[in-house]
Automatic annotation (TrEMBL):
Species name: Streptomyces fructofermentans
Compartments (UniProt record): Cytoplasm
Alphabetized HAMAP family for the sequence: Transaldolase_2
Keywords: Coiled coil, Cytoplasm, Pentose shunt, Schiff base, Transferase
Function: Transaldolase is important for the balance of metabolites in the pentose-phosphate pathway.
UniProt record similarity statement: Belongs to the transaldolase family. Type 2 subfamily.
GO MF annotations, alphabetized: transaldolase activity
Catalytic residues identified in the record: 145 (schiff-base intermediate with substrate)
One GO-annotated biological process of the protein: carbohydrate metabolic process
Gene3D superfamilies: Aldolase class I
Protein's name in the database: Transaldolase
Gene name for this UniProt entry: tal
Pathway the protein takes part in: Carbohydrate degradation; pentose phosphate pathway; D-glyceraldehyde 3-phosphate and beta-D-fructose 6-phosphate from D-ribose 5-phosphate and D-xylulose 5-phosphate (non-oxidative stage): step 2/3
Enzyme class: transferase
Amino acid sequence: MSVSASSDPLAELSAAGVSVWLDDLSRELLAGGELKELIVGKHVVGVTTNPTIFASALSKGDRYNDQLARLGAQGAQVDDAVFALTTDDVREGCRAFREVYRSSGGVDGRVSIEVDPRLARDAGATATQAVKLWETVAEPNLFVKIPATSEGLAAITATIARGISVNVTLIFSLDRYRKVMDAYQTGLEQALEAGLDLSGIHSVASFFVSRVDTEVDRRLDTLNSSHAKELKGKAAVANARLAYRAYEQVVAEARWQRLAAAGANVQRPLWASTGVKNPDYPDTMYVSDLVIAGTVNTMPGTTLTAFADHGTLPAHTPAAGDYAAAEAHLALLQDAGVDFADVTEVLEREGLEKFEASWAELGASVSEEMRSGTGTATGAADGGSGSAGLLAIYLNDHHTGATGGLELFRRAAGAKKGDEQEAVLTDLARQVEEDRDALAQIMTDLDVSVDRTKAALGWVAEKAGRLKTNGHLFSRSPLSDVLEAEAMLLGVQGKAACWRTLRALADTDRRLDATNLDTLLERAEQQSTALEELRAAAATRALDPQSAPAS
């Protein structure tokens, strides 16, 4: 039974105690006045951003062109340019929400910016960049977003302990959520011990919703049974409701009560990824089914518009019976053969990969715009005029290929667990990593900077290359071994050509070690021999009918 909120659904949602945030930000929204209209007319009281949002923003309109041209003319590195663009947008966003921030006592009016996703597995680097973002934006209503990886937990604690407000993102599992709440409380305890005012520290924990149904439904579809189909479309809300119950349990504990008495603010649950992916489901279900006072729902623009048009509120907020039903549903999934722990692990890994891919796309777009805006390259990593610039481009292209190639070797080795080829491929992967490091050192000796954006694109390209036309879209086929061996062989042959080029230059450039290059070239030839043997064996297994096992 639902209650209609047709007069102004978003107003009713806000009145029910849910903070309405927009999962989007761009210079078009800021400068065009649309964000201000959303604040006034659509009850929007906060904004979240991520690398995908910024990559999309750069592709819309021309409001970034002048700044990119200036940065290009100054010779800015790509990472520095990305940092400048994103922090400028978020700072303006914070200023747009100043009045909301003041009137809500600092609870809402928040704008989030995420740390570089490439740092997600490095707690120290994440905490360091969190401080840099906080100090650069320099607005009190900023949230620094930190992914809830196992390594990120320590960064969350360290950042909170410094008095910096944090939006913890990419939470999928209940176990990780409990650890996030523990990390927040530990940070508050450290801040209190350091004499900081806890009332000025805020946090939200972004629990992802729709992606859970997407992955669970995909697995249920593979079971191909009527019972499995009946279980679809319910896991995400069940998981989120159990997360809220975990939150209620934590804030009732003595540990939290002591912090609250010292002035601490609760870490509000935030429902993220609330856009509905399956067109068969109601397009507002991840809003309507999670109406709980004291929570935040950050919506993409399409979901916000849909709820404003026809959103409804439930007859009651989740209670004990709803929690029991949620537990029962997850148990049914487990009985049906869906490993929910694996679901959440896959979603965290893929979430990071998607953000890294978007970050690479953003960096590549920034690099291209800076070049096109100035008619020159943007720093040593991108090269410049003359032979030195061309050498920088040449070496960075090979370094990019080496990064993607390393991922390919690692994946091929991983696919041969327990097989006699595992040891050979694992050793080759180690050698390829050493070769990439050797190339990076050569670049340093030649005063050529490694373009991290290009390197990231090499990694992303390899990930995309997993969807090969091998006859099996999501699994390996007999052709997988053949195609991978051929790709690895071509990569090693290209690397050997690079060593030969550098060996020729070593005759006139003392910065190059001819003996080292001879060793690298010899090793590349040995790698080619080993890979040709693997390729021939794989081709025989896959394509020679005489080698097929008897049925």
